[in-house]
Write the C-alpha coordinates for this entry.
Amino acid sequence: MIFIKSIYNEVIKIALKPRSYLGIAAITVLVGVILFALKSDGMSIISFVTSSFEQTLSFEGNVLNGNLVAFIILQMLIVQIPLLIALVTGDLVSGEAAMGTIRLLLTQPISRTQLLLSKFMAGGIYTLIVIVWLGFMSVIMGKMLFGTGDLMVLNSDGLVILQEADVNWRYLGGFLVAFLALFTVSSLSICLSCFTDNSIGPIVTTMSIILLFTIIGTLDVHVFDSVRPFLLTTHMASWRSFFEDPLPIQDIKNSILILFIHNILLISISIYVFNKKDITA
Amino acid sequence: MSEKIIEIKSIAKKFGLFEAVKDVSFHVNQGDVFGFLGPNGAGKSTTIRCMLSLIKPDSGSIEIFGKSIFTHRNEILSRTGSIIEKPDFYKYLSAYKNLEIFSRLSRVSVGKKEIYNMLDFVGLGGREQDKFSSFSHGMKQRLGIAQTLLHNPDLIVLDEPTTGLDPQGIIDIRNLILRLKNEQHKTVILSSHNLAEIEIICNRMVIINKGVSVVEGDVKALMNNEDLVVRLELSDKDKSKALISSKYPNIQITDINDTSIELPMEKSKISELNKDLVQAGIGIFSIEAKRKLEDYFIKMVNA
Protein backbone atom coordinates (compact mmCIF):
# COMPACT_ATOMS: atom_id res chain seq x y z
CA MET A 1 0.00 0.00 0.00
CA ILE A 2 2.77 2.43 0.92
CA PHE A 3 4.44 1.59 -2.39
CA ILE A 4 1.31 2.61 -4.30
CA LYS A 5 1.12 5.82 -2.25
CA SER A 6 4.75 6.51 -3.03
CA ILE A 7 4.18 6.03 -6.77
CA TYR A 8 1.23 8.43 -6.51
CA ASN A 9 3.48 10.94 -4.70
CA GLU A 10 6.13 10.70 -7.39
CA VAL A 11 3.59 11.15 -10.18
CA ILE A 12 2.12 14.19 -8.37
CA LYS A 13 5.59 15.68 -7.99
CA ILE A 14 6.27 15.24 -11.72
CA ALA A 15 2.83 16.60 -12.60
CA LEU A 16 3.30 19.74 -10.49
CA LYS A 17 6.83 20.46 -11.67
CA PRO A 18 6.75 23.05 -14.49
CA ARG A 19 9.71 21.37 -16.25
CA SER A 20 7.61 18.25 -16.89
CA TYR A 21 5.48 20.17 -19.39
CA LEU A 22 8.47 21.15 -21.50
CA GLY A 23 8.42 17.73 -23.16
CA ILE A 24 4.73 17.90 -23.96
CA ALA A 25 5.08 21.50 -25.16
CA ALA A 26 8.13 20.65 -27.27
CA ILE A 27 6.33 17.74 -28.95
CA THR A 28 3.30 19.93 -29.62
CA VAL A 29 5.41 22.67 -31.20
CA LEU A 30 7.69 20.35 -33.18
CA VAL A 31 4.86 18.21 -34.54
CA GLY A 32 2.84 21.37 -35.22
CA VAL A 33 5.71 22.80 -37.30
CA ILE A 34 6.16 19.53 -39.24
CA LEU A 35 2.40 19.24 -39.88
CA PHE A 36 2.29 22.84 -41.07
CA ALA A 37 5.30 22.32 -43.36
CA LEU A 38 3.87 19.13 -44.86
CA LYS A 39 0.45 20.71 -45.29
CA SER A 40 1.89 23.70 -47.14
CA ASP A 41 4.55 22.02 -49.26
CA GLY A 42 4.36 18.29 -48.56
CA MET A 43 3.64 17.16 -52.12
CA SER A 44 6.88 18.62 -53.48
CA ILE A 45 8.83 16.68 -50.85
CA ILE A 46 6.95 13.49 -51.76
CA SER A 47 7.54 14.08 -55.47
CA PHE A 48 11.26 14.43 -54.79
CA VAL A 49 11.30 11.01 -53.07
CA THR A 50 9.04 9.23 -55.57
CA SER A 51 10.66 10.68 -58.70
CA SER A 52 13.29 7.93 -58.77
CA PHE A 53 10.53 5.27 -58.94
CA GLU A 54 8.25 7.00 -61.42
CA GLN A 55 9.71 5.18 -64.45
CA THR A 56 8.83 1.77 -63.01
CA LEU A 57 5.84 2.58 -60.75
CA SER A 58 2.82 4.77 -60.97
CA PHE A 59 1.51 6.33 -57.76
CA GLU A 60 -2.21 6.90 -57.46
CA GLY A 61 -4.43 8.17 -54.67
CA ASN A 62 -3.55 10.10 -51.55
CA VAL A 63 0.17 9.36 -51.09
CA LEU A 64 0.70 12.16 -48.56
CA ASN A 65 -1.82 10.76 -46.08
CA GLY A 66 -1.96 10.69 -42.26
CA ASN A 67 -0.13 7.36 -42.07
CA LEU A 68 2.85 8.67 -44.01
CA VAL A 69 2.83 11.95 -42.12
CA ALA A 70 2.90 10.08 -38.79
CA PHE A 71 5.78 7.93 -40.02
CA ILE A 72 7.77 11.01 -41.12
CA ILE A 73 7.14 12.68 -37.76
CA LEU A 74 8.24 9.63 -35.79
CA GLN A 75 11.33 9.26 -37.94
CA MET A 76 12.27 12.88 -37.30
CA LEU A 77 11.39 13.15 -33.61
CA ILE A 78 12.25 9.81 -32.05
CA VAL A 79 15.86 11.04 -31.73
CA GLN A 80 14.83 14.13 -29.74
CA ILE A 81 12.40 12.41 -27.35
CA PRO A 82 15.13 10.85 -25.11
CA LEU A 83 16.30 14.37 -24.25
CA LEU A 84 12.79 15.33 -23.20
CA ILE A 85 12.49 12.16 -21.09
CA ALA A 86 15.91 12.59 -19.45
CA LEU A 87 15.10 16.21 -18.65
CA VAL A 88 12.46 15.01 -16.19
CA THR A 89 13.68 11.58 -15.09
CA GLY A 90 17.36 12.58 -14.77
CA ASP A 91 16.76 14.51 -11.59
CA LEU A 92 14.20 12.27 -9.91
CA VAL A 93 16.83 11.18 -7.38
CA SER A 94 19.62 13.77 -7.68
CA GLY A 95 17.07 16.60 -7.74
CA GLU A 96 15.86 15.47 -4.31
CA ALA A 97 19.46 15.56 -3.07
CA ALA A 98 20.10 18.98 -4.62
CA MET A 99 16.90 20.35 -3.07
CA GLY A 100 17.58 18.69 0.29
CA THR A 101 14.25 16.84 0.32
CA ILE A 102 16.06 13.50 0.15
CA ARG A 103 16.74 13.76 3.91
CA LEU A 104 13.07 14.11 4.66
CA LEU A 105 12.08 11.47 2.15
CA LEU A 106 14.53 8.88 3.47
CA THR A 107 13.45 9.37 7.07
CA GLN A 108 9.94 8.23 6.17
CA PRO A 109 8.94 4.64 6.94
CA ILE A 110 9.37 3.36 3.40
CA SER A 111 12.32 1.27 2.29
CA ARG A 112 14.85 2.82 -0.05
CA THR A 113 14.17 0.08 -2.61
CA GLN A 114 10.43 0.81 -2.61
CA LEU A 115 11.06 4.53 -2.86
CA LEU A 116 13.43 4.09 -5.78
CA LEU A 117 11.14 1.66 -7.57
CA SER A 118 8.30 4.15 -7.20
CA LYS A 119 10.51 6.70 -8.96
CA PHE A 120 11.15 4.22 -11.79
CA MET A 121 7.39 3.62 -12.04
CA ALA A 122 6.68 7.36 -12.10
CA GLY A 123 9.38 7.80 -14.75
CA GLY A 124 7.66 5.05 -16.75
CA ILE A 125 4.27 6.72 -16.40
CA TYR A 126 5.73 10.04 -17.58
CA THR A 127 7.39 8.28 -20.54
CA LEU A 128 4.07 6.64 -21.41
CA ILE A 129 2.28 10.01 -21.31
CA VAL A 130 4.92 11.54 -23.61
CA ILE A 131 4.71 8.65 -26.07
CA VAL A 132 0.88 8.69 -26.03
CA TRP A 133 0.95 12.43 -26.70
CA LEU A 134 3.42 11.89 -29.54
CA GLY A 135 1.10 9.19 -30.89
CA PHE A 136 -1.91 11.49 -30.66
CA MET A 137 -0.11 14.41 -32.29
CA SER A 138 1.39 12.35 -35.10
CA VAL A 139 -1.11 9.58 -35.92
CA ILE A 140 -4.44 11.11 -34.87
CA MET A 141 -3.68 14.70 -35.88
CA GLY A 142 -1.96 13.44 -39.04
CA LYS A 143 -5.02 11.46 -40.09
CA MET A 144 -7.34 14.34 -39.19
CA LEU A 145 -5.39 16.80 -41.33
CA PHE A 146 -4.23 14.58 -44.20
CA GLY A 147 -6.82 11.80 -44.32
CA THR A 148 -5.88 8.16 -44.48
CA GLY A 149 -4.48 5.79 -47.09
CA ASP A 150 -1.82 3.18 -47.84
CA LEU A 151 1.55 3.76 -46.20
CA MET A 152 4.56 4.05 -48.44
CA VAL A 153 7.83 3.52 -46.59
CA LEU A 154 11.30 3.80 -48.04
CA ASN A 155 13.82 1.66 -46.23
CA SER A 156 17.25 0.18 -46.98
CA ASP A 157 15.71 -2.73 -48.95
CA GLY A 158 13.64 -0.43 -51.10
CA LEU A 159 10.07 0.77 -51.18
CA VAL A 160 7.49 -0.97 -48.97
CA ILE A 161 3.81 -0.27 -49.47
CA LEU A 162 1.51 -1.27 -46.62
CA GLN A 163 -2.23 -1.45 -47.03
CA GLU A 164 -4.27 1.11 -45.10
CA ALA A 165 -6.01 -1.64 -43.09
CA ASP A 166 -2.62 -3.13 -42.22
CA VAL A 167 -1.10 -0.02 -40.67
CA ASN A 168 -2.81 0.74 -37.33
CA TRP A 169 -1.58 -2.38 -35.49
CA ARG A 170 1.92 -1.66 -36.77
CA TYR A 171 1.78 1.80 -35.21
CA LEU A 172 0.58 0.25 -31.94
CA GLY A 173 3.47 -2.24 -31.97
CA GLY A 174 5.93 0.48 -33.00
CA PHE A 175 4.84 2.75 -30.17
CA LEU A 176 5.08 -0.09 -27.64
CA VAL A 177 8.67 -0.84 -28.65
CA ALA A 178 9.45 2.90 -28.71
CA PHE A 179 8.00 3.11 -25.20
CA LEU A 180 10.24 0.28 -24.03
CA ALA A 181 13.27 2.02 -25.57
CA LEU A 182 12.38 5.35 -23.98
CA PHE A 183 11.71 3.65 -20.65
CA THR A 184 15.27 2.34 -20.90
CA VAL A 185 16.45 5.93 -21.38
CA SER A 186 14.43 6.84 -18.29
CA SER A 187 16.03 3.96 -16.35
CA LEU A 188 19.49 5.04 -17.51
CA SER A 189 18.96 8.61 -16.36
CA ILE A 190 17.48 7.55 -12.98
CA CYS A 191 20.41 5.16 -12.52
CA LEU A 192 22.90 7.96 -13.21
CA SER A 193 20.86 10.17 -10.89
CA CYS A 194 21.64 7.78 -8.02
CA PHE A 195 25.35 8.47 -8.32
CA THR A 196 25.28 12.21 -7.82
CA ASP A 197 23.69 15.04 -5.87
CA ASN A 198 23.81 17.30 -8.89
CA SER A 199 20.54 17.69 -10.73
CA ILE A 200 21.91 18.59 -14.19
CA GLY A 201 24.74 16.02 -14.36
CA PRO A 202 22.60 12.92 -15.00
CA ILE A 203 20.60 14.68 -17.73
CA VAL A 204 23.74 15.76 -19.60
CA THR A 205 25.41 12.38 -19.06
CA THR A 206 22.36 10.50 -20.37
CA MET A 207 22.36 12.57 -23.53
CA SER A 208 26.12 12.15 -23.93
CA ILE A 209 25.81 8.37 -23.62
CA ILE A 210 23.01 8.29 -26.20
CA LEU A 211 25.05 10.49 -28.52
CA LEU A 212 28.15 8.32 -28.07
CA PHE A 213 26.22 5.09 -28.65
CA THR A 214 24.55 6.59 -31.72
CA ILE A 215 27.95 7.52 -33.16
CA ILE A 216 29.31 4.03 -32.41
CA GLY A 217 26.20 2.54 -34.02
CA THR A 218 26.52 4.70 -37.12
CA LEU A 219 30.26 4.33 -37.70
CA ASP A 220 30.94 1.51 -40.08
CA VAL A 221 34.04 0.32 -38.24
CA HIS A 222 34.59 -3.38 -37.59
CA VAL A 223 35.95 -2.88 -34.10
CA PHE A 224 32.45 -1.87 -32.97
CA ASP A 225 30.69 -4.80 -34.68
CA SER A 226 30.64 -6.93 -31.55
CA VAL A 227 29.15 -4.24 -29.29
CA ARG A 228 26.72 -2.65 -31.72
CA PRO A 229 23.94 -5.30 -31.31
CA PHE A 230 23.90 -4.66 -27.56
CA LEU A 231 23.73 -0.89 -27.58
CA LEU A 232 20.57 0.76 -26.34
CA THR A 233 20.54 3.11 -29.32
CA THR A 234 20.59 0.24 -31.81
CA HIS A 235 17.24 -0.88 -30.42
CA MET A 236 15.78 2.59 -30.06
CA ALA A 237 15.11 2.46 -33.81
CA SER A 238 13.44 -0.96 -33.60
CA TRP A 239 9.98 0.58 -33.87
CA ARG A 240 10.75 0.85 -37.60
CA SER A 241 10.84 -2.95 -37.85
CA PHE A 242 7.03 -2.92 -37.55
CA PHE A 243 6.88 -1.15 -40.92
CA GLU A 244 8.78 -3.84 -42.81
CA ASP A 245 7.14 -6.54 -44.85
CA PRO A 246 7.45 -9.37 -43.94
CA LEU A 247 7.65 -8.47 -40.26
CA PRO A 248 11.14 -9.32 -38.84
CA ILE A 249 9.71 -11.00 -35.74
CA GLN A 250 13.04 -12.38 -34.57
CA ASP A 251 14.68 -8.94 -34.75
CA ILE A 252 11.80 -7.40 -32.80
CA LYS A 253 11.93 -10.12 -30.14
CA ASN A 254 15.67 -9.67 -29.91
CA SER A 255 15.32 -5.90 -29.42
CA ILE A 256 12.64 -6.34 -26.75
CA LEU A 257 14.84 -8.86 -24.92
CA ILE A 258 17.91 -6.63 -25.00
CA LEU A 259 15.92 -3.59 -23.83
CA PHE A 260 14.44 -5.68 -20.98
CA ILE A 261 17.93 -6.81 -19.95
CA HIS A 262 19.12 -3.19 -20.04
CA ASN A 263 16.25 -2.19 -17.74
CA ILE A 264 16.84 -5.03 -15.29
CA LEU A 265 20.55 -4.20 -15.11
CA LEU A 266 20.01 -0.47 -14.72
CA ILE A 267 17.32 -0.91 -12.05
CA SER A 268 19.45 -3.45 -10.15
CA ILE A 269 22.52 -1.16 -10.19
CA SER A 270 20.35 1.75 -9.03
CA ILE A 271 18.88 -0.23 -6.13
CA TYR A 272 22.34 -1.36 -5.03
CA VAL A 273 23.84 2.14 -5.21
CA PHE A 274 20.84 3.86 -3.62
CA ASN A 275 20.73 1.44 -0.70
CA LYS A 276 24.47 1.89 -0.07
CA LYS A 277 24.38 5.66 -0.42
CA ASP A 278 25.17 7.82 2.61
CA ILE A 279 22.94 10.88 2.64
CA THR A 280 25.29 13.72 3.43
CA ALA A 281 23.52 16.39 1.37
CA MET B 1 14.28 3.77 36.16
CA SER B 2 13.06 5.20 32.84
CA GLU B 3 12.92 3.02 29.75
CA LYS B 4 15.75 3.60 27.30
CA ILE B 5 14.33 4.88 24.01
CA ILE B 6 17.68 5.23 22.27
CA GLU B 7 20.89 3.41 22.98
CA ILE B 8 23.91 4.21 20.86
CA LYS B 9 27.07 2.22 21.47
CA SER B 10 30.47 3.13 20.08
CA ILE B 11 29.46 4.22 16.60
CA ALA B 12 32.16 5.26 14.17
CA LYS B 13 32.01 6.59 10.64
CA LYS B 14 34.71 7.51 8.15
CA PHE B 15 34.28 9.43 4.90
CA GLY B 16 37.39 8.49 2.98
CA LEU B 17 40.25 9.27 5.34
CA PHE B 18 38.22 11.69 7.43
CA GLU B 19 36.88 10.25 10.68
CA ALA B 20 33.62 12.16 11.18
CA VAL B 21 32.64 10.04 14.20
CA LYS B 22 35.22 8.05 16.15
CA ASP B 23 33.46 6.76 19.23
CA VAL B 24 30.06 8.10 20.19
CA SER B 25 27.91 6.45 22.83
CA PHE B 26 24.92 7.74 24.76
CA HIS B 27 21.40 6.81 25.69
CA VAL B 28 18.11 8.69 25.80
CA ASN B 29 15.33 7.78 28.22
CA GLN B 30 11.60 7.83 27.62
CA GLY B 31 10.31 11.37 28.17
CA ASP B 32 13.75 13.02 28.04
CA VAL B 33 14.35 16.31 26.35
CA PHE B 34 17.88 15.41 25.43
CA GLY B 35 20.41 18.07 24.49
CA PHE B 36 22.87 17.21 21.78
CA LEU B 37 25.83 19.55 21.98
CA GLY B 38 29.11 19.98 20.20
CA PRO B 39 31.09 22.53 18.24
CA ASN B 40 30.89 22.69 14.44
CA GLY B 41 32.37 19.57 12.88
CA ALA B 42 32.12 17.59 16.13
CA GLY B 43 30.10 14.82 14.47
CA LYS B 44 26.61 15.78 15.67
CA SER B 45 25.00 15.76 12.25
CA THR B 46 26.67 12.49 11.25
CA THR B 47 25.50 10.87 14.50
CA ILE B 48 21.92 12.10 14.00
CA ARG B 49 21.98 10.89 10.39
CA CYS B 50 23.22 7.49 11.57
CA MET B 51 20.34 7.35 14.07
CA LEU B 52 17.86 8.02 11.27
CA SER B 53 19.50 5.56 8.84
CA LEU B 54 20.59 8.26 6.42
CA ILE B 55 24.19 7.20 6.99
CA LYS B 56 25.36 3.71 7.79
CA PRO B 57 28.03 3.71 10.50
CA ASP B 58 31.16 1.62 9.95
CA SER B 59 30.85 0.08 13.42
CA GLY B 60 28.80 0.24 16.59
CA SER B 61 25.13 -0.31 17.31
CA ILE B 62 22.05 1.90 17.33
CA GLU B 63 18.92 0.72 19.08
CA ILE B 64 15.74 2.79 19.10
CA PHE B 65 12.58 1.59 20.87
CA GLY B 66 14.63 -1.50 21.78
CA LYS B 67 15.25 -2.47 18.16
CA SER B 68 18.18 -2.07 15.82
CA ILE B 69 17.80 0.68 13.22
CA PHE B 70 19.59 -1.58 10.75
CA THR B 71 16.96 -4.33 10.93
CA HIS B 72 13.77 -2.47 11.98
CA ARG B 73 14.22 0.77 10.06
CA ASN B 74 10.65 1.31 8.85
CA GLU B 75 9.09 0.39 12.19
CA ILE B 76 11.36 2.85 14.02
CA LEU B 77 10.95 5.65 11.49
CA SER B 78 7.15 5.31 11.63
CA ARG B 79 7.39 6.39 15.29
CA THR B 80 9.95 9.14 14.69
CA GLY B 81 9.68 12.70 13.43
CA SER B 82 12.73 14.72 12.48
CA ILE B 83 14.21 17.89 11.11
CA ILE B 84 17.79 17.47 9.99
CA GLU B 85 19.85 20.63 9.62
CA LYS B 86 17.29 22.70 7.76
CA PRO B 87 13.79 21.83 6.65
CA ASP B 88 13.88 21.51 2.87
CA PHE B 89 10.65 20.95 1.02
CA TYR B 90 9.55 21.02 -2.63
CA LYS B 91 9.88 24.67 -3.64
CA TYR B 92 7.24 24.44 -6.35
CA LEU B 93 4.59 23.01 -4.00
CA SER B 94 2.42 24.72 -1.41
CA ALA B 95 2.80 24.19 2.33
CA TYR B 96 -0.33 22.03 2.29
CA LYS B 97 0.79 19.94 -0.68
CA ASN B 98 4.22 19.37 0.87
CA LEU B 99 2.69 18.08 4.10
CA GLU B 100 0.21 15.98 2.16
CA ILE B 101 3.03 14.30 0.22
CA PHE B 102 5.00 13.36 3.32
CA SER B 103 1.92 12.36 5.30
CA ARG B 104 1.12 9.73 2.64
CA LEU B 105 4.31 7.90 3.58
CA SER B 106 3.74 8.11 7.31
CA ARG B 107 1.68 4.93 7.88
CA VAL B 108 -0.83 7.02 9.84
CA SER B 109 -4.01 8.27 8.27
CA VAL B 110 -3.70 12.05 8.08
CA GLY B 111 -6.59 13.97 6.55
CA LYS B 112 -6.97 17.46 5.13
CA LYS B 113 -8.37 18.72 8.44
CA GLU B 114 -5.37 17.46 10.41
CA ILE B 115 -2.96 19.13 7.97
CA TYR B 116 -4.83 22.44 8.22
CA ASN B 117 -4.92 22.15 12.02
CA MET B 118 -1.21 21.43 12.18
CA LEU B 119 -0.35 24.38 9.92
CA ASP B 120 -2.51 26.54 12.15
CA PHE B 121 -0.79 25.11 15.24
CA VAL B 122 2.68 26.15 14.01
CA GLY B 123 1.48 29.58 13.00
CA LEU B 124 1.09 29.05 9.27
CA GLY B 125 -2.71 29.35 9.24
CA GLY B 126 -3.82 31.29 6.19
CA ARG B 127 -0.61 30.45 4.30
CA GLU B 128 -1.58 26.84 3.50
CA GLN B 129 -1.72 27.32 -0.27
CA ASP B 130 1.36 29.56 -0.53
CA LYS B 131 4.34 28.01 -2.26
CA PHE B 132 7.27 26.93 -0.11
CA SER B 133 9.59 29.10 -2.25
CA SER B 134 7.79 32.19 -0.99
CA PHE B 135 8.37 31.35 2.70
CA SER B 136 10.84 33.14 4.97
CA HIS B 137 13.39 31.04 6.85
CA GLY B 138 11.30 31.17 10.00
CA MET B 139 8.22 29.98 8.13
CA LYS B 140 10.22 27.12 6.62
CA GLN B 141 11.29 26.10 10.14
CA ARG B 142 7.66 26.14 11.25
CA LEU B 143 6.65 23.99 8.30
CA GLY B 144 9.46 21.60 9.25
CA ILE B 145 8.07 21.37 12.78
CA ALA B 146 4.59 20.76 11.35
CA GLN B 147 5.88 17.91 9.21
CA THR B 148 7.72 16.44 12.19
CA LEU B 149 4.64 16.40 14.41
CA LEU B 150 1.99 15.55 11.83
CA HIS B 151 2.01 11.79 12.35
CA ASN B 152 2.16 12.11 16.14
CA PRO B 153 5.59 10.47 16.63
CA ASP B 154 6.88 9.13 19.95
CA LEU B 155 10.42 10.34 19.27
CA ILE B 156 11.18 13.77 17.88
CA VAL B 157 14.63 14.70 16.58
CA LEU B 158 15.15 18.42 16.12
CA ASP B 159 18.41 19.63 14.66
CA GLU B 160 18.71 23.40 15.21
CA PRO B 161 14.94 24.01 15.20
CA THR B 162 15.12 27.66 16.21
CA THR B 163 17.66 28.81 13.62
CA GLY B 164 16.30 31.85 11.78
CA LEU B 165 13.32 32.32 14.06
CA ASP B 166 12.46 35.68 15.60
CA PRO B 167 12.45 35.93 19.44
CA GLN B 168 8.74 35.14 19.62
CA GLY B 169 9.28 32.14 17.33
CA ILE B 170 12.08 30.85 19.57
CA ILE B 171 9.85 31.15 22.64
CA ASP B 172 7.01 29.40 20.76
CA ILE B 173 9.25 26.48 19.80
CA ARG B 174 10.65 26.26 23.33
CA ASN B 175 7.16 26.20 24.80
CA LEU B 176 6.08 23.67 22.20
CA ILE B 177 8.93 21.32 23.15
CA LEU B 178 8.09 21.66 26.84
CA ARG B 179 4.42 20.96 26.08
CA LEU B 180 5.36 17.89 24.07
CA LYS B 181 7.36 16.65 27.03
CA ASN B 182 5.00 17.57 29.83
CA GLU B 183 1.58 16.97 28.25
CA GLN B 184 2.27 14.27 25.69
CA HIS B 185 5.35 12.65 27.30
CA LYS B 186 7.23 12.70 24.00
CA THR B 187 10.94 12.07 23.86
CA VAL B 188 12.81 14.91 22.18
CA ILE B 189 16.41 15.10 20.98
CA LEU B 190 17.43 18.68 20.53
CA SER B 191 20.62 19.59 18.77
CA SER B 192 21.37 23.27 19.10
CA HIS B 193 24.16 25.80 19.24
CA ASN B 194 22.02 27.89 21.55
CA LEU B 195 23.35 26.68 24.89
CA ALA B 196 20.95 28.82 26.92
CA GLU B 197 18.10 27.08 25.11
CA ILE B 198 19.50 23.65 25.97
CA GLU B 199 19.97 24.73 29.58
CA ILE B 200 16.35 25.83 29.85
CA ILE B 201 14.68 22.98 27.98
CA CYS B 202 16.77 19.84 28.39
CA ASN B 203 16.93 17.49 31.35
CA ARG B 204 19.76 15.33 29.96
CA MET B 205 22.53 15.97 27.47
CA VAL B 206 25.62 14.70 25.72
CA ILE B 207 28.56 16.77 24.54
CA ILE B 208 30.37 15.53 21.45
CA ASN B 209 33.77 16.81 20.39
CA LYS B 210 36.05 15.65 17.59
CA GLY B 211 33.84 12.64 16.94
CA VAL B 212 33.87 11.41 20.54
CA SER B 213 31.20 11.71 23.21
CA VAL B 214 32.92 13.70 25.95
CA VAL B 215 30.32 13.78 28.69
CA GLU B 216 26.76 12.56 29.12
CA GLY B 217 24.26 12.89 31.91
CA ASP B 218 21.64 14.88 33.75
CA VAL B 219 22.06 18.59 32.93
CA LYS B 220 21.49 19.76 36.54
CA ALA B 221 23.71 17.08 38.04
CA LEU B 222 26.54 17.84 35.63
CA MET B 223 26.26 21.54 36.31
CA ASN B 224 26.12 21.05 40.10
CA ASN B 225 29.60 19.60 40.00
CA GLU B 226 30.82 22.92 38.72
CA ASP B 227 31.55 26.20 40.53
CA LEU B 228 29.02 28.97 40.24
CA VAL B 229 29.92 32.21 38.56
CA VAL B 230 29.25 35.05 41.02
CA ARG B 231 28.78 38.58 39.71
CA LEU B 232 29.03 41.40 42.24
CA GLU B 233 28.20 45.08 41.82
CA LEU B 234 30.10 46.95 44.51
CA SER B 235 30.69 50.43 45.93
CA ASP B 236 34.50 49.96 45.96
CA LYS B 237 35.73 47.51 43.39
CA ASP B 238 39.49 47.77 44.07
CA LYS B 239 39.11 47.33 47.83
CA SER B 240 36.85 44.34 47.22
CA LYS B 241 39.35 42.72 44.85
CA ALA B 242 42.16 43.13 47.38
CA LEU B 243 40.00 41.62 50.11
CA ILE B 244 38.90 38.67 48.01
CA SER B 245 42.44 37.99 46.75
CA SER B 246 43.82 37.93 50.28
CA LYS B 247 41.08 35.62 51.57
CA TYR B 248 40.75 33.39 48.49
CA PRO B 249 44.22 33.50 46.85
CA ASN B 250 43.47 30.94 44.12
CA ILE B 251 40.37 32.64 42.76
CA GLN B 252 40.61 34.44 39.46
CA ILE B 253 38.68 37.71 39.45
CA THR B 254 37.37 39.17 36.19
CA ASP B 255 36.57 42.85 35.78
CA ILE B 256 33.20 43.41 34.12
CA ASN B 257 32.94 47.21 34.34
CA ASP B 258 33.84 50.04 36.76
CA THR B 259 31.70 48.66 39.56
CA SER B 260 31.30 44.93 38.77
CA ILE B 261 33.48 41.85 39.00
CA GLU B 262 32.93 38.14 38.36
CA LEU B 263 34.53 35.22 40.10
CA PRO B 264 34.00 31.44 40.31
CA MET B 265 32.97 30.19 43.74
CA GLU B 266 31.36 27.24 45.46
CA LYS B 267 27.77 27.84 46.49
CA SER B 268 28.53 27.29 50.19
CA LYS B 269 31.08 30.10 50.28
CA ILE B 270 28.92 32.86 48.78
CA SER B 271 27.27 33.89 52.06
CA GLU B 272 30.65 34.04 53.75
CA LEU B 273 31.97 36.32 50.98
CA ASN B 274 28.92 38.53 51.37
CA LYS B 275 29.57 38.79 55.13
CA ASP B 276 33.27 39.64 54.63
CA LEU B 277 32.50 42.41 52.16
CA VAL B 278 29.85 43.97 54.41
CA GLN B 279 32.14 43.79 57.45
CA ALA B 280 34.84 45.59 55.41
CA GLY B 281 32.38 48.41 54.81
CA ILE B 282 31.92 47.72 51.12
CA GLY B 283 28.45 48.38 49.77
CA ILE B 284 26.94 45.52 47.71
CA PHE B 285 24.44 46.81 45.14
CA SER B 286 23.75 43.39 43.63
CA ILE B 287 24.93 39.82 43.87
CA GLU B 288 24.07 37.25 41.22
CA ALA B 289 25.17 33.64 41.22
CA LYS B 290 24.82 31.72 37.99
CA ARG B 291 25.95 28.48 36.57
CA LYS B 292 26.48 28.72 32.83
CA LEU B 293 26.28 25.82 30.42
CA GLU B 294 28.32 27.90 28.04
CA ASP B 295 31.28 27.84 30.43
CA TYR B 296 30.81 24.17 31.11
CA PHE B 297 30.59 23.45 27.39
CA ILE B 298 33.79 25.35 26.60
CA LYS B 299 35.56 23.66 29.48
CA MET B 300 34.52 20.18 28.27
CA VAL B 301 35.31 20.88 24.64
CA ASN B 302 38.74 22.30 25.46
CA ALA B 303 39.57 19.58 27.96
